[in-house]
Amino acid sequence: MRIFVDAMGGDNAPKEIVKGCIDAVNEYHVQLTLVGDETQIAQTLSLASYPKQLINILPSYSVINFNDEPVKAIREKKDSSIVIALEAAKKAGADSVVVSAGSTGALLAGGLFKLGRIKGIKRPALGTPIPTKNHITLLLDSGANADCKAEYLQQFAILGSIYYQNIYQQVNPKVALLNIGTETEKGNILTKEAFQLLSKTRAINFIGNIEARDIMNGKADIIVTDGFTGNIVLKQLEGLSNYLLNGLKQAILSSFRGKVGGALIQKDLQSFKHEFSSDEIGGAPFLGVRGGLIKAHGSSKAYAIKNAIKQAIAYMDRDIIAKIDNTINTNTDSIKF
Amino acid sequence: MRIFVDAMGGDNAPKEIVKGCIDAVNEYHVQLTLVGDETQIAQTLSLASYPKQLINILPSYSVINFNDEPVKAIREKKDSSIVIALEAAKKAGADSVVVSAGSTGALLAGGLFKLGRIKGIKRPALGTPIPTKNHITLLLDSGANADCKAEYLQQFAILGSIYYQNIYQQVNPKVALLNIGTETEKGNILTKEAFQLLSKTRAINFIGNIEARDIMNGKADIIVTDGFTGNIVLKQLEGLSNYLLNGLKQAILSSFRGKVGGALIQKDLQSFKHEFSSDEIGGAPFLGVRGGLIKAHGSSKAYAIKNAIKQAIAYMDRDIIAKIDNTINTNTDSIKF
User: Does A184 contact chain B (CB < 8 Å)?
Assistant: First the structure.
């Protein structure tokens, strides 16, 4: 197993990324390759205590930014941390994973170009784990494919089921289709067709349509949708949560009485926010590419990076790639993973 | 002007609907026709003080429920409050409005079948006013058309602009396209094409793409999208707000300290929730049908119904139907409304 961490990606790179790696090797005793600016990485490493032989550095000389055009950046910034990490992973074989908090677009484009698809996969999908009510719900595709066909959604359901069952150790995870009504006949052309296909796919545990108002109730383990809708849902989740929590804070701080009350609820509020935080649950896997690829949140600090690395270890330990390969290239009507 | 109110639609019908009507005639001195169960309506009316000549009853004998299949219900429940209200409005001419808190699906199907489209309108759209930061943002289509073409979205932008400018008295309202990135080239096939069309439509003030994370910031007056995505956004808004506010409440109530703090912030919390409430801003207009049709929220109480009636009055006073007709059937590249 080889784990490559893009030390230069995300808002807090490289310092927090490197710290997360140090915590990970101390806790999980795995070998990590950090890809990035050698001097900066070495500087943070030199301050820490950890088994030196577990971390090595693969130098890179540029960074792909969030505002770089993804496809162009992958093609042109050949010495960037993302490109060098992906190429090293490709060379190391399917038994390797890349973890990055960098540009999602560049990681998706790079993953597709550099790692390639697992045989039989029509479109790899980005699965984002969402902390829902006492639960984790995997939303896919959450942004890799803006235009989808029903058979892509069928594969997303299989990819998500394999991942969920193996990573979260849940037998027969429940798959729901994101739709504008719960009834069978509801939806647009795509979801109506996908509903029929999913109903016939015996390899998955399809529980029917789910409405957007029920995403947070934790009743589905996997929610399947096209990448356009999935991306809208994810970004609304982010925007609306911030809006509500900030609005609430401002309302409370607007009166003296509120300020006193606010101080008293601070602890409970923090624990609630913590429950709702994505730091706990690691990153989003890009499922269907040949090799592991975990996208950590751009705002990840050390703790979130450590969790993403934990997830990368599980990804390899539980042989997700081989299981996807076997399932997709066997009769999907009968197989169990 | 004729205003027909479906007295039987919604969770709190008929009592709260009738009360809202009483408040509306007392405040706005308009003539209302209440459609519904004569005995029940008369009972609530008999307890109130208002100018008796301003309210009359048009009897209906059944109700279309939220779980009735909309198209079938419109066809078969001919003596329902929705069908009778729509037919009466049709007969009364384009200078009439129907207000209902009943089944959205039935109102959309009924509006289309009974009232028909304004000449030149490809697809009428449901516009939902969302309370955003110090602002109201109109989201359309929020559920009438699950599958859309780019030219429908172009018309939605025009419909929304006419409505917004006239109802909220804002010159040159800003139109944004809901998309998965702010850059011009981002999106799925539909939004890429719609972006081009909207950019060329000189009748509107197109400000470009907006991401779902920015919906609540109030920077757009009108957000245009297909009815599938719009419905997902609306329902997520509802579900996530409830989830967050309830989760927060539970977290606070879980400790003694929190309970005391919670009591102190109660007032500020209420004022924040009030700001965020859709009761203030009336209902959702079904734009493009021949006649006014305002869908109030299913949970509407008297206050929300009164506001929906206020909106219906403005709809007619400001001649929205004629303005849509003129704009759509003239060169949309040069017209100002």
Answer: no
Name the token pair of B206: 């197109």
B188, B238, B251 member nearest A228 (Cβ): B188
Task: Please indicate, yes or no, whether residues B188 and B240 belong to a single structural domain of this protein.
Answer: yes
Residue A47, Cβ neighbours under 10 Å: how many?
A: 9
Residue type for A54, please?
A: L
Answering whether pTM is above 0.90, one says: yes
Instruction: Report d(CA A296, CA B144) in Å as an integer.
Output: 37
A86 and A183 together in one domain: no
Residue of B229, B255, B268 with shortest CB distance to A258: B268
Domain count, chain A: 2
Range of the domain at B60: 1-118+288-314
Same domain as A216, residue A236: yes
- Do B112 and B126 share a structural domain? no
Question: In this structure, what CATH number is given to the domain that contains residue B23?
Answer: 3.40.718.10
Candidates B191, B213, B267; nearest CB to A239: B213
- B144 and B265 fall within a common domain: yes
Q: Does B93 touch chain A (CB under 8 A)?
A: no
B57 at interface of A, judged by CB pairs closer than 8 A: no
Q: Are residues B69 and B182 in the same domain?
A: no
Instruction: Give ipTM to 2 decimals.
Output: 0.91
CA distance A150 to A163: 20
- The answer, for A274 touching chain B at a CB cutoff of 8 Å, is no
Domain contains B329: no
SS3 (DSSP) at A320? helix
**Consecutive 10-residue averages of pLDDT for chain A (337 residues):** 95 96 97 97 95 96 92 96 97 92 94 94 95 91 96 97 94 97 92 96 95 94 98 93 82 77 75 70 91 93 95 93 90 50
Phi, psi of A293 (to 5 degrees): -145, 115
